[in-house]
Design goal:
The chain has 199 residues and is an all-alpha fold. The chain has two domains: 1-52, Arc Repressor Mutant, subunit A (Orthogonal Bundle); 56-198, Tetracycline Repressor, domain 2 (Orthogonal Bundle). The protein is built from ten helices and no strands. Helix 2 (33-40) packs across helix 3 (44-51), helix 4 runs antiparallel to helix 5 (83-94) and helix 8 packs across helix 9. The radius of gyration is 19 Å and the shape is elongated.
Amino acid sequence: MAKGAAMSGTAKEALLERCIEHLQDVGFSDLSMRELAAAIGTSHRMLHYHFGSRDGLLVEIVNLMEARQRAALAALEADAGDLTDLSRAFWKRVSDPALAPAERLFFEIYAHALNGRPWAAAFRESVVRAWTDPIADMLTKHGLPSQEAGRLARLSLAVGRGLLLDLLATGDQAAVDDAADLFAELITRVEGTRDNHER
């Protein structure tokens, strides 16, 4: 029984990967489950079996994409010397042109959440909170007081997403990279102010 469950999980994960690859290329827009199933070489019944509905599939896609980015941030944090290094390293990752299709899909789903789509309610409730808590924890590890860490976590998330949206809309990599670098420098000033207060 456990073996069957594991195999089912593997099949679901494989389908999810294929869906993500396809939707990153075409967006989900008004794509039906039948059309998506045909595009990735499966049946719409299999998609319904594993995800329940088209909306359920989209939720799973967003959850996986977000979880991967948070895991990447945690891995970078383990190697970063300070907050400036971490900010620059994470921006380099999320602004990689290879990730642009995934980022566009994220913002497409974000727009549907903002427009009150019922299937996106859980996403709308967690899309900020799921990030601010772990970011604040990282900032606290670097010595910031918890209240200050919470404020900076919210700001960091907003700046990162804003710059990423700018990059996707304008394609002006150099200008957006420069702005991201300025934000990394501002984080250094926050750390410096903290250190001065502690002396």
